Amino acid sequence: MGIIVRKANNEDFFKTFREMQRDVDSVFDSFLSGKRERGMQFMVPKVDVYGSEKEYVFEFELPGFNKEDVKVNVENNVLTVSGQIKQEKSEDEKNYHVSERNYGAFKRQFTLPEDIDLEQISAKFENGILELKVQKKEEEKKQSLDIQID
User: Fold this and answer.
1) CA 28 to CA 43: how far, in whole Å?
2) Element of type H or E holding 28
């Protein structure tokens, strides 16, 4: 990423401001969309998280990945999903005009609530979607007792 230098146009301050805003927006757009800049690859896979009374479900969108490219780990109640997809190199280098495929690494982390059962986590990878199901611990049945105050 380079430094943006711009000379202010005293005659049309708002035009200069709009141009600066467009330049800053393009930097953030390229970061969030995963575009390469000087060999760097930013990947932020999309994820949906939802739950029910019995479980939490994480659905990661990972197009182009195989299940062998992805690693899932839970340590100290932090769920970590990471992966890497490498660009295939061939002997005959192609002269690309446009290349929009994503290559690189990602790492997403989520702090899990205390009510999860670490022994009951399942993962399924199908059609570019990684689905993690994290079961909640069964609630201990609380006995209630009314105490009479004398």
Assistant:
1) 13
2) helix 13-33
